[in-house]
Amino acid sequence: MSRRDMSVAELAEELQHSQETVRQLLNRGMFRGAYKAGRGGQTSPWRIPMTALDHYRKRQPQGYRAA
Length: 67
Fold this sequence. Notes:
It comes from Arthrobacter ginkgonis. Helices cover 40% and strands 6% of the residues. By secondary structure, the protein is mainly alpha-helical. The protein has a two-stranded antiparallel ribbon. The chain is globular.
């Protein structure tokens, strides 16, 4: 069974960051495979695959607070 994609709010809670910080990370391309749902426009909500979160965590320095 595959895990569903996360919302910005869910990812922010998981990483213990604000939603705005998560959006900034998404806009900088820090989560490989993240995408805009719906029509993909500027106001469309972000969706983040669990694999993107795993990849992000692996790239963080050891001891990083959100790891």
